[in-house]
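To close the chapter, one final illustration. This time we ask the reader to focus less on the individual chains and more on the assembly as a whole: which components sit near each other, and how the overall shape emerges from the parts.
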Amino acid sequence: MTVVQMKNVSKKIKNHMILDNLNFDFEENQIVGFLGKNGSGKTSLMKIIAGEWSSTSGQVYVNDQKPFNNKKVLAKVCFIQEGNNFPVDMKISKLLKLCRNFYPNWNQEVAESLLELFDLDRTKKIKELSKGMESAVGVMVGISSRCEITIFDEPYIGMDANARKKFYQYLLNDYIEVPRTIIFSTHLIDEVSSLFQKVYVINKGRLLLDIQTDELKEKVYAITGPTKEIEEIKNKFTILEEKHFMGNGEIIVFDQSEKEHVMPENCKRNALNMQDIIVHVTEKGEQIL
Amino acid sequence: MNRILSAKSILEVRNIKTQSIFWGFLLLFLTLSLVLTVTVNDFTTQFTNSVAIYIFMAISSYVLIGKNFNYCIHFGLTRGEFMTASILSRVQNVIVMALINIIILVSVNQILTSFSIEHFNIFSWSSIFTDHSLIVTNMWIDFCVGILVSSAAMLSGALYYKWGLVGPISVIVVLILATSLPFIRSNLFDFFERVYSEQALASFGWLLIVSIVLWACTYLLLNRVDLKRE
Amino acid sequence: MKLDVNSEVPIFQQVAEIISNEILNNNILEGQQVPSTNEIAEFYQINPATARKGLNILVEDEILYKRRGIGMFVKEGATRKILQQRKNEFTHVFLKPLLEEARRLGISIDEVKKLIDKQGE
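The assembled structure is written out below.
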């Protein structure tokens, strides 16, 4: 079943185009990554899917329903953002009680084990926690809610590498146990990219890429070799970056063809890591569209 | 219903604490002025709980939306559920405060008569509406005025949420302009005079109707608004 | 064996390689069950869909077969098949780069042969 569907969706705030004519949809029970620079529109898009914001034009459907202010959608969504998720004066123990009422699939056992995993003291108030601890509370709620649609918008601010690793691990294992739709936006792409089944790359409110994670490395890669040979094959690709030094060159290409290209004799194709791919794609986004 | 009660409990995270501080200070001042009046004994003190309650209701209702709307919607509540929870919480608050006020009124009056203190006077609506009992009069009027003040403050809070300071300030300007119009002014004056002369307590029910209209406006406003960015 | 997220080889292909290596090393015998999609996903911390894709390559190559509701098993003759595949790839993956580098360094084919003989002892 299609879980999220966007048809010509735009969002304008004070004459400023935040989201510009988005069109995409995806099936339920996938882990989907929303990638892009700060201010690219990722958060706005998530707020619209979560029913917190309305769109200025176009149609948004979540589970075939319009999400804005719609109980049928809101009760199935858990949205954890960078911060300010919970009232600062609330104790963690009180928060747990509330979650049980708000999230129909809430799993107390998962919550308990996450409290222990992140060493969270339930007698503490949100405002008494460090930034990393506060993020851990968000992560704990997000996973334990087991909502049909769980949205994480850079939920790890202040968490150290160790805690983040625990989070990804727990999230994946819980997802395997109870498959559900997980939408995840992040800057730390290399850390989580292997969890994503699909990625959406967004820049300046526009959708640059809508692709299976597996295929990304086939589309964007580097070619190194003698400048002369590089020049020969250059026109077959969209060039995202080009560097030459001492008669040798490197190009980062966006390969839109279906079949594999035959490389000139001394040219080599090199894979890029996900982080670099996304950086190159967002830098030269307009050329891809 | 469970969701609404849970939402209400978000609104009331610090309610007991702030209420205790409020009543603590009020009782402290009341005792101090009572002691001062008795010991110095050459001036008359007029003490008013009701106004303090209205101010408290106004402030707490004004900050209610700014403080809690984001969190509640973020938890997955609809705007309607948020409004219902807010109204329930406001009504409960006013009733509790009016009750506490009556307890204070009765006990202070008891103290005043048993120690025959004459220079101290604590305001009670029953001194204006003498036809009815102290409890009924104060309970009813505190309730009606408290609700009106609260709903007006909530609307201002919602206006602030949507448009920033321009919202509530423009409302205040409109109110000042409206009350300065001779036509409205004389009508209001007539209304209060009639209420007083006829001892028509039931007329305070009009305040509740106005409150419902203000709440409806607040709801319509919040119903379309996007969550604010932090 | 470890997965390399940054490798140019797609993750699902690495999964397939890891499994066929284990079959080749006789760590999983013919007729035995291979780890499930979820077990692989959990162990390597990858999306289950990626793990499934890796297993499906091996099913297409007739190295594994599905038993509905139970899981995936190593087919009879799988070892031989992988061996054959790897031999076919040997020229392309190992020999060609070797000869290319030798030419660049000015080492003749005969010299390469001698080096191989020496290394083989």
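The mean pLDDT of chain B is 89. The two ends of chain B are 29 Å apart (CA to CA). With these observations in hand, you are ready for the problems at the end of the chapter.
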